[in-house]
Amino acid sequence: MNAAKTFHVTTFGCQMNEHDSERMKGMLESLGYAEAPEQEGADLILFNTCSIREKADSRFIAYLQQAAAHKRRAPGTVIGVGGCWAQSVKHDVFRQFPYVDVAFGPGQVHKLAEFLTTDSLTAQGFFEFEGFTGHLPVKRARDFQGWVQISAGCNMKCSYCIVPATRGRQVDRPLDELVAEVRDMVENGVLEVTLLGQNVNAYGRAVRGGERSSFAALLHELDALDGLRRIRYTSPHPQDMKEDVVLAHAQLESVCPHMHLPLQTGSSRVLKAMRRTYDRARFLDRVALIREHNPDIALTTDIIVGFPGETEADFAETLEVCEEVGFDGAFTFIYSPRRDTEAAELVEDFVDHEIAVARMERLVEVIQRRAAERAQRFVGRTLDVLVEGSSRTDAARLRGRSGHGKVVNFSGLAEPGEIVPVQITAATSQTLAGEMSLLARALV
Ligand code: 5AD
Ligand code: SF4
Known about the structure:
By secondary structure, the protein is an alpha/beta fold. It folds into four domains: 6-126, Methylthiotransferase, N-terminal domain (Rossmann fold); 140-256, Transcription Regulator spoIIAA (2-Layer Sandwich), CATH 3.30.750; 258-375, Transcription Regulator spoIIAA (2-Layer Sandwich); 379-443, CATH 2.40.50.140. Helices cover 35% and strands 22% of the residues. It has 14 helices and 19 strands. The chain has helices spanning 15-30, 54-73, 84-89, 92-96, 109-117, 163-167, 175-187, 215-223, 243-251, 268-274, 280-293, 312-325, 353-375, 438-443, and strands at 6-11, 34-35, 44-49, 78-83, 102-104, 124-126, 145-149, 151-152, 171-172, 192-196, 230-234, 258-260, 298-305, 329-334, 382-390, 398-402, 407-411, 419-427, 431-436. The strands form five sheets. It has a six-stranded parallel β-sheet with strand order 2-1-3-4-5-6, sandwiched between helices. It has a five-stranded mixed β-barrel with strand order 15-16-17-19-18. Strand 13, helix 12 and strand 14 form a beta-alpha-beta unit. The longest helix has 23 residues, at 353-375. The model is unreliable at 129-136 (pLDDT under 50). The structure holds 5'-deoxyadenosine (5AD) and iron/sulfur cluster. The site of iron/sulfur cluster has 9 residues, from helix 6.
């Protein structure tokens, strides 16, 4: 009997891509492929690509060249490129990289199966938007955590963002289909789900083949499932952050006390140029509403520095908003021009790279200082922690996450997938440290 063919997948970019990769893996295993530990020697080398920032592109190209070198040594190797970058360059991928055999956009993962099972001899690309790959089996990295894609695409037109061009208009999955999927996951041991979409809280208006619904309604339905302990989601848009979702955090036990709410910039002028559809005051008003109903909630955000035309005064406003809000954490990005986006045309207004880097350093200082200050509220408290494995810095300790999304490193005895009480003894901007409270554990 022949040994099973092997595959290796490298994933770039966001959680949506991580999730798509799990689908790819599940699909390949159902086709009889086995996962290889590394690129070298795999029969099928796959890349799930991202195009949100330029850096992801260039890292990916270096990996792709490595795959080409493997293919020169083993010419039967199949190289596949999926995801947003593939979608954004489409058939150009074969011109630029003639050793690629198959390319496919997001939502086209099932076409990869078709390609592999028809023994196609010529390179092929699959780029139409067809919506979801929802019916494919998923291979989960951890048995107790799962991702659910609730919508695809985005109807916003943020001027820096490539997503509307690569992922098309928003399409939502029907509510009952999502509830059934999560129920099935819970029956198979999932305790925590993360709902994924480019603009999750706009969910419900573009349901394909089903009734209109709302994101808050989805949260209520999922909360009612027995055995589902934690619901997370990413990312909402401040424009659509309405009271019903804010109240769901306060009322529904399984909805985690964490919200990732992308600010992008604190300058109303730049927000307008970004076409974000809210201004500084409106963002602060949303934060006040969220905290009024959820005083302990962790708020994290995304910020872009060096958007075309950003002045020192605009940037100072971003710092002010970050000081004022006191985020529990932030992803910070230097603006990078993306093809087919409105902002990429503002070449004359591009901010010098050195200026952007210097602003980024100042921003990170404020973000980290405020996050460290905020994290002190946890010291002395006992938090429920979902154990993920051993600590990355000290294998004798455990690592998990609190409902707030904080990484907690702690001493104690527990298995991955258990939710245990941990008494917090120290906090930095990034992580919490603590000890598992054995007495409290007996009571959970
Ligand atoms: N340049 C820099 N950052 C970007 N993001 C999206 N597009 C760009 C870009 N062109 C950031 C935004 C978004 C996050 C996922 O990536 O902050 O919220
Ligand atoms: Fe991009 Fe804006 Fe849509 Fe987010 S909301 S995916 S930043 S266009």
